[in-house]
Amino acid sequence: MSERFLRDLLSRRDPHGYYVIPARPEARRVVEGLSGGEAIIVDAADVILVKVRSRSTASKILRVLNRKGLLALPDRDLEEMEEEDEARYGPEMEV
After folding, report:
1. Sorting pLDDT into bands at 50, 70 and 90, what band is 92?
2. pLDDT tens digits for range 8-37
3. What is the side-by-side order of every strand in the sheet holding 48-52?
4. N or C: which terminal CB in the chain sees fewer CB atoms within 10 Å?
5. Which 3-state string (H, E, C) describes 6-34?
């Protein structure tokens, strides 16, 4: 999974101050174990939305779900999205 996609998930919050992580439904148990009851899990059509206030918890959940292949990926090809972002915003800067 693209580092840019993962950073993008951690760079934005919803209007209520939560980080929102789209995941596959089978990730529910993993998330419940990692979050210690801190996460709110919302069932959506074919994904679950994991909402947490803590950036460190969100980062931990993202890393584990990414490693296990349980993040819900966008329908569009990530490379295509990165090329579009680069055309719109310029090349990625190293931090």
Report:
1. low
2. 888 889 999 999 999 999 999 999 998 888
3. 19-23, 48-52, 40-43
4. C
5. HHHHHHCCCCCCCEEEEECHHHHHHHHHH
Give a yes or no: residue 91 inside a domain: no
Question: What domain range is 25 assigned to?
Answer: 3-85
Spatial separation of the C-alpha atoms in residues 24 and 72, rounded to whole Å = 5
| Tens-place pLDDT, residues 27-85 | 999 999 988 888 999 998 889 999 999 999 999 999 999 999 999 876 555 566 567 66
Coil, helix or strand at residue 42? strand
> Given its phi and psi angles, is residue 62 left (phi above 0), alpha (psi -120 to 50 degrees) or beta?
alpha
Asked whether residue 72 is domain-assigned, the answer is yes
Amino acid at 41: I
Does this model's pTM top 0.70? Answer: yes
71: which strand partners? 23
Whether 93 is in a domain gets the answer no
